[in-house]
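Put briefly, the fold is written as integer tokens. One such record reads:
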Amino acid sequence: MIAQKINATHALKNQRMALTLQQQTSILQLMLAMFKTAPGASNLMSLGSLLQGGQSLASLAQSLTESSLFFDRQYAAYLKPDEFAVKFVHDLVGDRVSISDKSLVVDYLTHRMIAGATQGELIAELMSTLSPIPASNLNWGKAASHHNTRNATKVVTHLLGSTFTPANIAVVVDYLLAQMAAGKTFGEMIVWAIDTVIGVDHDNVVWGKAAVLFNNRIEVSKYYSVDKAGTAIDRVAMRQILAKVTVDTETVTAAKMTIDHLLCNDSGFSNDAVDDFQLDKILVIKKNNVLPIPQGTAKRIELMV
């Protein structure tokens, strides 16, 4: 298994040259902002092919925000449809909607799953439905506002790290939310946030350290995903490596040494390293998340709006 993963990196080194430097960099930046990790060579190529095919970076970001991977919750495959629906709806909206509204959606998701929808498809469908609901909506506005705030805070924190105080992070989050309320998509605002960080001078009093931090982590991500064409280090391990990278350039060198060590030693690999972070499969789920509604079930989640 490990030998196969290592051998696969050689083929990926040849494939990655088909991407432009800008496409490579954009994907590295997007993965760090959204998932606080490196894409690895396989994800780099699969996402890069979408950019080559004409999809915009903002559109790609939007699709990923509506995925089960970005929601970052795992549900056991053995859960019955109604058990999954109850757990997922509670995780997503908590007590921010009425019991009757929650029951409506639980009923809808349960019947959809009985009809053949997967957990991933239902997570993507409900997240994409909830996010655009305005905060003023009497039934679902509070839940939508909480959902969008949580997602925006996640991305901004990934971008700025400890270089901003929680209060200043909240200011940036509020700006993102205001723009989304005015009609921008979350994907567009993720790209805006990335462009803002990378576009400032490193000696900027407010944003400078954030720019240096992000740049250093991108350098490490590139080292693993492009220079080493790595695929074998699991997502959690890469997050731990990148979390130790600071504005100090010595931490970049240390992170690269850690990557080299893991790539040369079987102990650093997980058999699920690739399987738990296959973004091409996640995006296929997102595309296929609309199935026929069984007769007699709740009307599509348009009832939420």
User: Anything to note?
Assistant: The first helix runs from residue 2 to 15. The chain has 15 helices and no strands. The two ends are 48 Å apart (CA to CA). Confidence is low (pLDDT under 50) at residues 289-300.
